Amino acid sequence: MTDEAGETPGEVAPSGPMISVCVPAHNGGRFIRETLDSVLGQRDADFEVVVIDNASTDQTPAILEAIDDPRLRVVRTPRLLPMGENWRFAMTQLRGALVKVVCADDLLRPGALAAQAKILTEDPSIALVASRRDFINADGQVRAADRGLRGLTGPCEARTVLRRQVRCGINQIGEPANVMFRMADYARTTGWNAHRVYPMDAQLWVELLRLGRLYAQPQTYAAFRLSGSNLSASHSAEQYAQTDELLGEVAREWGIPRWQGALGRLARRAVWAAWRIRIKLLARSGAAR
């Protein structure tokens, strides 16, 4: 089903699905069918899939039109929205009590939705649940397996998670595809930050951790696609500055010593340098888009 973008905020309908999986897409035709197959193939979970087609001009609309599944709903924006604005709009279109955002080139592994929903429905002290994830190339080959959540397992207090975040200098929790949270908790945050777009997932995790704990799953339930063109691969000076600003705010709010922040900045430089090398190697081999 295809809807035109509207302005009415989404609500959790009494008869709606338990989970909303949101797939923001702009010219995602190369991978979106693979992404949706990984979502629609999930078992033992009550969910809808809402694709926000952000004014795509490639084959994305035709691919979406060809998928006949009552769980899929497509909302098309009348104009191209900036990423942060689009993600904020996307949240108004969801009807589920639980939310997962999956970018149009990432994948879910079998059992992801059921396993994460079970934790959130059984333990109200948990504000977000995250799994490990694989890094894959354009061909879906795993380039690095079972990454993320280093040193974190099971229920974790917010301060423990955020101290590790500052000390390591990077997003330890991961990208949206390996995270699930409650819509009611999202409504208590400032939402996806349209002005600090590079670390906007990490910033939302910080805000959610003010409301409860993280549950770190030891399993791998998502795959993040390494790409020479996606936002996470750019590592520009602006991205570095925004991340540094966010982690500085976290350190001050949670009373984390300055030396840990300095250690994090050094670690981030090393990690990002290695990441840039990895992306260049993939691009040379034709594996990155």
UniProtKB/TrEMBL annotation:
Per UniProt, the keywords (alphabetical) are: Glycosyltransferase, Transferase
InterPro entries in the record, alphabetically?
Glyco_trans_2-like (IPR001173), Glycosyltransf_2 (IPR050834), Nucleotide-diphossugar_trans (IPR029044)
Every Glycosyltransferase 2-like domain range: 20-154
What CDD domains does the entry give? Answer: Glyco_tranf_GTA_type (cd00761)
- Gene3D superfamilies from the UniProt entry: Spore Coat Polysaccharide Biosynthesis Protein SpsA, Chain A
- Gene Ontology terms for molecular function: glycosyltransferase activity
State the family named in the UniProt similarity comment for this chain.
Answer: Belongs to the glycosyltransferase 2 family.
**Record protein name field:** Glycosyltransferase involved in cell wall biosynthesis
